[in-house]
Amino acid sequence: MSTLFEPYTLRALTIPNRVWMAPMCQYSAAPDGPEAGVPHDWHFAHYAARATGGTGLIVVEATAVSPEGRISPYDLGIWNDTQAEAFRRITRFLATQGTVPAIQLAHAGRKAATGRPWKGGAPLGPHDRAWQPVAPSAVPFSERHQVPDELSTEQIREIVGHFRAAARRALAAGFEVAEIHGAHGYLINEFLSPHSNHRTDAYGGSYENRTRFAFEVVDAVREEWPDDKPLFFRVSATDWLDADGWTPDDTVRLAAGLHARGIDLLDVSTGGNSPGVRIPTGPGYQVPFAARVRQETPMPVAAVGLITDAGQAEKILANGEADAVLLGRELLRNPSWARQAARELDARVRVPDQYHLSRSPWRATGTSR
Questions:
Q1: Is 95 helix (H, G, I), strand (E, B) or coil?
Q2: Which candidate, 359, 329, 38, places its Cα nearest to that of 169?
Q3: Is the pLDDT of residue 71 over 50?
Q4: CA 75, CA 67: separation in Å to the nearest integer?
Q5: pLDDT at 127
Q6: Residue 304: enclosing H or E segment and its boundaries?
Q7: For residue 1, what pLDDT band results from cuts at 50, 70 and 90?
Q8: Following CA atoms 204, 196, 186, 81 in sequence, which dihedral angle do they give, to the nearest 10 degrees?
Q9: Can you name the residues that pair with 267 across neighbouring β-strands?
Q10: Helix (H) or strand (E) holding 168
């Protein structure tokens, strides 16, 4: 029996397998006007392909809770009802394939207002639809980036409200799981790390103060998110800095606190809060961070980071290092990775019946074909 293709239950939700798609920005939404941040045909085709490929859960890319929270002008958003309604086309189709639709709620903080990666990803100038980034402290991400405005306590409360409203819209849009983006040097991660948080008020300094904003966002989203639906949190387990950064010890401590506040699973990544750091990448290089959280706290975890083949993914789960795996670039290369993995592992999977979707989205089969 393949662990990778065992169902996984969180709260009242059962996910059909442990092959999950990590959130990956597509930078393909309209940048302005009434269609700004609205998912369209590209997004539908992109996510639909991975759903028909057998992926058990798909986390839609970082979706901004406000216009200023976008990484680029081309990011998806969920700050208005037009965006939420457009997502329903995607969530409905994913559900017909038995795939659980999830969404990552995000604010880019000091890394906002940049261009598309394939055009260099540089910070935008005043004539390129730029806006003023905000952050816990007036410390730019790099020499190229704008100096962000330091958030006031009133502005912090407003952003917490944006996350709350985004969760409400995500629920109306048909998502079954929400994930709060607390990783990769974006706003919540910026508050967590002493590398980017130089505040001296109630939101800076001590561990308790630096985690305050994250916990306030979690509390607000959990209040809106139904008790029977899971809530995830994505964390960068380390800044990969020798000193004055967020550490694996901090992550273990945070995981316990998040679990007590109603987070159901920690999506464990690393890095992104400091440019130029040396990261020892390799197959599964971030898995040990997930494993440590799973071993030392009651928090379930998903592992991510250069997980590319079925045997590797199966071993991670069978060894108890994670409860699920999140695939990124490998699912971009191969939308049907899950079906291929099932064949390799001789696993039983469930294949959508294209002729009886109105009655039942699934029919049981043996190994995938």
A1: helix
A2: 38
A3: yes
A4: 9
A5: 72
A6: strand 301-304
A7: confident
A8: 40
A9: 234, 302
A10: helix 153-172
Residue percentage of the chain with pLDDT more than 90: 90
Cα–Cα distance between 109 and 132 in angstroms, integer? 10
Strand-strand pairing, 19-21 and 57-64: parallel
Q: Does residue 368 surpass a pLDDT of 70?
A: no
Question: 232: Cβ–Cβ under 8 A, 6 or more apart, which residues?
Answer: 59, 102, 177, 178, 179, 180, 263, 264, 265, 266, 267, 302
Is the separation of the CB atoms in 348 and 366 below 8 Å? yes
Mean pLDDT over all residues of the chain?
A: 93
CB 123 within 8 A of CB 130: yes
Structure tokens at 17: 């397998």
Pick the catalytic residue: 47, 74, 186, 203?
Answer: 186
Work out the widest C-alpha separation in the chain, in whole angstroms. 62
- The answer to whether residue 96 scores a pLDDT higher than 90 is yes
User: What confidence category does residue 348 fall into, taking pLDDT thresholds of 50, 70 and 90?
Assistant: confident
Six token digits for residue 360: 């039942």
For the packed helices 248-260 and 212-224, what is the interaxial angle rounded to 10 degrees? 30
The Cβ-side half-sphere exposure at 146, using a 13 Å CA radius, reads 19
Q: What is the model's pLDDT at position 367?
A: 32
Q: Which pairing describes strands 363-364 and 350-351: parallel, antiparallel, or unpaired?
A: antiparallel
Give me the pLDDT at residue 254, please: 98
- In total, the chain counts a number of residues equal to 369
Q: At 349, list the tokens.
A: 């999977």
Does residue 361 have a pLDDT over 80?
no
pTM exceeds cut of 0.85: yes
Q: What confidence category does residue 126 fall into, taking pLDDT thresholds of 50, 70 and 90?
A: confident
Catalytic residue check, 74: no
What are the distances in angstroms from CA 173 to CA 30, 92, 168, 234?
19, 9, 9, 21
SS3 278: coil
- Alpha-carbon span 239 to 243, nearest angstrom: 9
